[in-house]
Amino acid sequence: MTSTVFVGIGLLFTADPEREELEDAALLAEDGVVRWIGPSAHAPEADERVDVEGRAVIPGFVDSHAHLVFAGDRTAEFAARMAGLPYSAGGIRTTVEATRSASVPELVHNTATLVSEMAVQGTTTFEIKSGYGLTVEAERRSLEIAGQFTAETTFLGAHVVPPGTTADDYVHVVTGPMLDACAPYARWVDVFCERGAFDEEQSREVLAAGIKAGLRARVHANQLGPGPGVRLACEMGAASADHCTHLTDRDVSDLADSGVVATLLPGAEFSTRSPYPDARRLLDAGVNVALATDCNPGSSFTTSMPFCVALAVREMGMTPREAVRAATLGGARALRRHDVGILRVGARADLAVLEAPSYVHLAYRPGVPLVAQVWQSGRRLV
To answer: Disulfide-capable partner of 378 in 159, 189, 200, 349 (CB 3.0 to 4.6 Å)?
Structure first.
C-alpha cells in the first residue's frame, strides 16, 4: 500500500454536502482513494507528506462534455463570427472533412494534446464524444481513440446530417450499422436535437436505439433556441441535457422533477456571442447543474474549466461556490459517477491544489494559471 497525506490546506473544498468546506485541513490518500479528512494538526502518518502551505484544495474538475477527437481548426469561422456573422451548426461539416482525412496517429496526437491541456488546468475526469466522422468506420475509429484516454466515451453519430443524404435516411444508418459498430466502444449515446440537426422524433429514435444497445443517454438540448430537447431528455431518462440556453418554465420544472442534470457550457456562448444560460433560475428551481467546457474546434475551443467557472460567476448568476461545485460534483452527477468530483472517504483521490488561499480566486482572478498541482488517484499528475 502507498499513502500520501496532504497537510496545511488553508481551505479544503470537498463538494460533499455534509461537510463542504474545512479550514486548516488535511487529507489522507491511500491506494488512490481518500481514507481520512480532518484537522491538519491531527493528520495521520503516511508514506509521503505533502505540505501545501496554506493553499486551497478542491476536487479535480469533471468535464462532462467535450469533443476532443478531431483534426483541423475553424479559425476563419471564429473570425467571421467576431466580425458579426451569426453562429449556426453548419460549420461542423468542415471539421468532419478534416477528421475523415486525418490519420489515426494524427488524431491520437491531437487528442493527447488537448487532454494534457485539461490536466494542467485541474481536470482529472472527462468525457469524449465522437461526431466528427459521420460514417460507420470514422465514428468507430473516433470512439476507439477516445477510449485510449477515458472510460467516458459518447457515441454522437447524430451530430449533424452529412451531405448527400436526408436526415431520416441518416438516422437509419446511425441506429443500425453505425450503432452496431460503435456501441462496443461507447458508454453513452447522444444526439444534437436542434434545428439544423435532428428533430424530436429523429432524436427519440436515436436515443431509444442507443438505450436498447446498452448505452446511457445524454442530449444536446435547447442551444440555439427553444425546442423539444430538454423535454426529450427528461422523457428518455437521460443523465444530462447539455446547453440548456433557451428554456421554458416547463423545461425548468421537468429538469427539477426528473433529476436530469442541466450541463451548462458557457464557453460556447462566449465564443459565439450568444445569450448565456440562466443558471440562477435553474439553481433556484432545484435543478442539478453542471459546468463543462464543450471543447470543440468550432464553438468553444477551450479546455479550461477555470475559465468556465469564471464565466459562470460573471455571466450566469452563480456564486463562486456554486460554480466550483457544478464543475466538480455537478460534472460527476452528469456522468452518473459517485467516485469523482468530491473529496470524501471512499472517493477517488483526485484533487487540485490552487496557488491561492480560496477557490473564489478561480473567478476573482480570471485567466491566471492558479492550478499549482494536480493529483489523480493519489498520484501526482501535474
So the answer is: 349
In 59-213, which residue ranges form alpha helices assigned H by DSSP? 75-82, 92-101, 104-120, 136-146, 167-173, 179-182, 200-212
DSSP-assigned letter for residue 1: -
**Percent of the chain clearing pLDDT 90 (strictly above):** 93
Closest CA to 188 of 146, 224, 227: 146
Cα distance between residue 21 and residue 130, in whole Å: 37
| Pairing of the two strands 216-221 and 188-193 | parallel
**Which residues lie closer than 8 Å to 289 by C-beta, 6 or more apart?**
261, 262, 263, 264, 279, 282, 283, 318, 322, 326, 330
Record the pTM.
Answer: 0.96
In degrees rounded to 5, what are phi and psi of residue 265?
-130, 75
Average pLDDT over residues 50-73: 97
CB–CB of 264/288 below 8 Å?
no
- The HSE-up count of residue 339 (CA atoms within 13 Å, CB side) is 9
CB 264 within 8 A of CB 241: no
Q: Which of 368, 367, 362 is nearest to 56 (CA)?
A: 362
Cα(312)–Cα(290) distance, integer angstroms: 10
Among residues 99, 180, 78, 98, the alpha carbon closest in space to that of 142 is found at 99
Contact 351, 57 (CB under 8 A): yes
Rounded CA separation 25/88 (Å): 48
- Residue 369, helix vs strand vs coil: coil
Give yes or no for a contact between 261 and 333, defined as CB atoms under 8 angstroms apart.
Answer: yes
126 within 8 A of 154, measured Cβ to Cβ: no
At residue 48, the 3 state secondary structure works out as: strand
* Residues counted in the chain: 382
Measured CA to CA, the distance from residue 332 to residue 294 in angstroms comes to 15
pLDDT band at 79 (very low <50, low <70, confident <90, very high): confident
